[in-house]
Design a protein that fits this description.
binds coenzyme A
């Protein structure tokens, strides 16, 4: 497995990965999410590929000057339990740390609580916060 920056030719494979992993939602256009990320810190959007260059994982991260954020972490169904998720998180943590980022945050949908154990296993803790959001652009 290799972790490398996302390339435009990965687009359809990455979107299929997100769909299979249950990460897409009708109100988020994944093509627009990718285009926006390519305009802001594109180096923090990476994919894991196998020896045949098949996309088997992804994570999209960013640093806002206060906190780092992680989104769209996914491992392909047939590549789970092999360390892809752990390697992607470690990659993002190292990249954020190199930017001086002191803390990483992420959000887990309430319908996806099973993944909390994965993050806790990697050292993440529930911050006991309420997450609020406001849409500024309708996709
Ligand atoms: C979460 C996800 C990325 C994990 O990827 P993965 O490649 O299977 O995970 P890894 O193989 O790297 O696992 C790393 C460690 O976490 C453990 N782990 C993996 N999934 C776990 C889970 N659901 N609960 C508890 N521990 C888990 C593994 O046993 C492994 O432990 P070890 O390294 O000490 O042996 C993957 O399950 C996935 O894509 N889920 C669907 C998408 C999703 O929910 N993303 C998060 C959105 S917030």
């Amino acid at each position: 497995m290799q972790i490398r920056p996302f390339r435009p030719e990965d687009t359809e494979a990455v979107i299929a990965l997100w769909q299979d992993a249950g990460l897409t939602r009708p109100w988020n256009d994944p093509h627009k999410d990718i285009a926006r990320k390519l305009a802001v810190q594109p180096e923090l959007f990476v994919v894991a590929v196998d020896e045949d260059e098949r996309v088997i994982g992804s994570v999209m991260a960013g640093y806002d000057g206060h906190r780092g954020w992680m989104n769209y972490l996914a491992a392909a169904d047939d590549a789970r339990g092999l360390g892809v998720g752990r390697a992607l998180v470690a990659h993002v943590e190292a990249a954020l740390l190199a930017l001086g980022c002191p803390k990483v945050n992420l959000q887990v949908r309430s319908t996806n609580s099973g993944v909390v154990d994965f993050y806790e296993h990697l050292g993440y803790r529930n911050d006991d916060t309420v997450s609020l959001g406001k849409r500024l652009i309708e996709d």
